[in-house]
Amino acid sequence: MATEPLIIAGNLTIHSGVTSLVKQVSFTLGRERVALVGESGSGKSLTARSLMGLLAPGLHLQARQLQLAGRDALTLNEKRWNQLRGSELAMVMQDPKYALNPTRTIGWQVEEPLRLHQRLSRAERREKVTEMLAAVGLPQPTQLMTRYPHQLSGGMGQRVMLAIALIADPQFLIADEPTSALDHAMRDRVLALIHRLVEERNMGLLLISHDLQQVSEHCERVMVMYKGQLLDTLPAAELSRATHPYTRTLWSCRPGKATHGQMLPVLDRSALERELKHD
Ligand SMILES: Nc1ncnc2c1ncn2[C@@H]1O[C@H](COP(=O)(O)OP(=O)(O)OP(=O)(O)O)[C@@H](O)[C@H]1O
Ligand SMILES: [Mg+2]
């Protein structure tokens, strides 16, 4: 990796009771754009949420090492997690309908990370909110600030989520299927926007996606999960000539432009399991 690591996970395991849902996963992420792919239920979201200290109650994390922005995450208390979230690492979720607070205005919600993480005057905060809303391509920020989430379209909601995630200048963005609730045209635009902002701000990105075409266009590296394990890591440019059988299957099943955005076809699992055994 060309840059210093921002996230180091060593043998990350997530349990629910005696079941391990994520199994001994290790990776290092810097100021680069990395995709996390794999079929539904493979453990992508759990892995991402564990990097934000946001695992649901009942889930337990174990790791040999978990370093986030230079801090040892295994010893962080809730107060330190709160400092880290938003200021160093931020996350955008799949659906703004559920992630935004329906009872607060857009202005209040975009401003909140600044109230939590930075010492600025009210006027300075307002100015930053206005700039950030413009940076994510939302017109008429002053009007928008007084609106509520239900008054926004999906694409606007996701731009607001992005504004909330980026306003306190985090070093790393985790985006968990940030465009899957959007229509096709809007997907490309929001992803291109994320790509551009991450580059301009010299941040790292972990993009969770089902869309390998999108991944190959916007990411530099790809990590592939299957049943809670990290099976393969490769440069995105090598996806078309991947050597791992599972990665090859995912790539060959990717939706083309015509079927873009539809569900992945079902994989030939028995053939895959046979191949994996030969590995
Ligand atoms: N709170 C929980 N308690 C118990 N099991 C859970 C919990 N959350 C997730 N799981 C299970 O852990 C596994 C991994 O879930 P995860 O949400 O990480 O999958 P994913 O790869 O993000 O899938 P998708 O692509 O559908 O979003 C799944 O089998 C899921 O049912
Ligand atoms: Mg998920």
TrEMBL record:
| InterPro entries per record | AAA+_ATPase, ABC_Ni/Peptide_Import, ABC_transporter-like_ATP-bd, P-loop_NTPase
Write out the catalysed reaction: a dipeptide(out) + ATP + H2O = a dipeptide(in) + ADP + phosphate + H(+)
Any one GO MF annotation of this record: ATP hydrolysis activity
- Alphabetical list of SUPFAM superfamilies matching this protein: P-loop containing nucleoside triphosphate hydrolases
Membrane-topology annotation of the record: Peripheral membrane protein
Q: What is this protein called?
A: ABC-type dipeptide transporter
**PANTHER family this protein is in?**
DIPEPTIDE TRANSPORT ATP-BINDING PROTEIN DPPD, OLIGOPEPTIDE TRANSPORT ATP-BINDING PROTEIN APPD
Q: Which GO terms describe its cellular component?
A: plasma membrane
